[in-house]
Amino acid sequence: MKILNVQQIREADQFTIKNEPIASIDLMERASGQVVNWVCKHFSNEHEIIVLAGSGNNGGDGLAIARLLSNQNYSVKVVLIMGESGSDDFEQNLDRLKSLKKVEILNDFNFSNSNNDYIFIDAIFGSGLSRPIEGDIAKFVQKVNEAKGIKLAVDIPSGVFADEPSPGETIFKSDFTLSFQVPKLAFMMAENQQYVGQFEILNIGLSEEFINNCISDYSIYELTKELKLLLKVDSIAHKGIRGRATIIAGGHAKMGAVILAAKGTLHSGIGLLSVQVCPLCIDIIQNQIPEALILEDENDYVLGSFLGYNKQDVLVFGPAIGFANKTIKLLEEILKTFKGQLILDADAITILAKNREMLELLPEGTILTPHHGEFKRLVGNYSNNFEALMQLKSFCKHHKVVVVLKGKFTAVCNEKGQVSFNTTGNQGMAKGGSGDLLCGILAGIAPRVQNPFETAKLAVYLHGFSGDISLKEYGENYMTPSTMISNLKDTFKKVEN
Ligand SMILES: NC(=O)C1=CN([C@@H]2O[C@H](COP(=O)(O)OP(=O)(O)OC[C@H]3O[C@@H](n4cnc5c(N)ncnc54)[C@H](O)[C@@H]3O)[C@@H](O)[C@H]2O)[C@@H](O)CC1
Ligand SMILES: [K+]
């Protein structure tokens, strides 16, 4: 699903109005109708509806929504935040609403009576927001934010800028945001979560042709039939077709990370798995992962032996591996010689950040999987996710790598600076070991997908999906990366069918 900026969405509106053709007021009616359908589906007409309308087209939507909900027998009140004169479509909808005579139209609202059955619909500002909300409107929005009731934003919460950081201090806090046709970049930024709530994209019939032709660096990942085929192998498959992976992670007393990654790789379809371990840890792996071949390191407590790896399709390096000089040298050697798919995580990323000359050795197409703390070590500090995104794109372009920046909406970026956001996953996954499992899944599918960007997007999706199953099955407290490994079973069933 493509993410478009405000300018592009405006052009898509205009193109649709001209070429469908449809009058602007009728397009507004269609958009409002979709919001009303959604409300009717989710909330009974026992709820009291309060529509907060600005004077632009977002306000126009609000007035149409008020009329249509009233026609569905909801009790509706409208508060005109900016008076009675506004855009053409606003004024036309105000006339329609007045002639309906069923909806009370107010200039202010007494919040003291509001309760949890109230639904406040924010149609104050949409994509036309051009400056922070201030003065009386800000005071009003603050009162709504403090009031009891369900909060629903039309298109975008008032005060949130769609394409850039929102500088204002007063922003409508929604439980649900019902946005038209395409998601907005702001929805993918963790700092906006408290305002956006859960977002839904409503199809209002804007020209698909126009949207397909829009160029955008941003999209939301969706699993398609073609992507599912990436994981299929011939019925005469042998382990070579499924690929060979080696995991170089952990070290003495840090074998948990290795086991989680290794299980992730095995249960994602790898043909042959090898694990490099210190001699003292061989038994642990042989007990826990009987499928794994052991590559014995010559060091007792840290990993440091370069073992060739020339038959390997994919190599994971980093989880809990530490920072011993021998380990750093091993990574350097691998960067210089390994020709397959390299996946670098955790301590490997910190090693690169501290030994910056090694960054220039990164093979093209390497997948790096930092969380924000690790990414900041690589690129320096940033204060919001829009800045992080710019850093992400420039890092990937400069080093010609794929970076998985892990967070609420994990962003996967390729060497062209194209960014795909993932929407599977949940807060129950924010636990130690979750990243190790992701590395494992990446390694498990990489040899079949054979494209680092597609591998990373799909692995992040699968990882989040199994997290979502775990959440349903076990709840956010009980679930662990280990339950997610067992839920890979249903995850792959879904993907395979
Ligand atoms: N035909 C279309 O173009 C469609 C537009 N739609 C709706 O139209 C919205 C965009 O409408 P508009 O472009 O009229 O913009 P808005 O309705 O967001 O508001 C714009 C108005 O508010 C003023 N304004 C902006 N920031 C302000 C601030 N901080 N304080 C005070 N005033 C401020 C602007 O000067 C302008 O007059 C979308 O979000 C969507 O809800 C939908 O009806 C779908 C179809
Ligand atoms: K709004």
Structural notes for this entry:
With 497 residues, this protein is of the alpha/beta class. It folds into two domains: 6-215, 3-Layer(aba) Sandwich (Rossmann fold), CATH 3.40.50; 225-496, UDP-N-acetylmuramoyl-L-alanine:D-glutamate ligase, CATH 3.40.1190.20. The protein has 18 helices and 17 strands. It has helices spanning 6-19, 24-42, 57-71, 88-100, 135-146, 193-196, 208-213, 225-229, 239-242, 255-266, 282-288, 325-337, 347-354, 372-379, 385-399, 434-449, 452-478, 481-496; strands spanning 48-53, 75-80, 104-106, 118-123, 150-154, 176-180, 198-202, 218-220, 244-248, 272-277, 293-296, 314-317, 341-344, 367-368, 402-405, 411-413, 419-421. A ten-stranded mixed beta sheet has the order 8-17-16-15-14-13-12-9-10-11, with helices on both faces. A seven-stranded parallel beta sheet has the order 3-2-1-4-5-6-7. A hairpin with a 5-residue loop joins strand 16 and strand 17. Helix 2 (24-42) packs across helix 3 and helix 3 (57-71) packs parallel to helix 4 (88-100). The longest helix has 27 residues, at 452-478. The radius of gyration is 26 Å and the shape is elongated. It starts with 5 loop residues before the first helix and ends with a helix. The model has no long low-confidence stretch (mean pLDDT 96). The structure holds ligand NAX and potassium ion (K). Ligand NAX is lined by residues 13, 24, 27-28, 31, 54, 56-59, 61, 87, 125-133, 137, 154-155, 180. K(+) binds at residues 58, 122, 158. AMP binds at residues 406-410, 435. Pfam families: Carb_kinase, YjeF_N. Its cofactor is Mg(2+); K(+). GO terms for molecular function: ADP-dependent NAD(P)H-hydrate dehydratase activity; ATP binding; metal ion binding; NAD(P)HX epimerase activity.
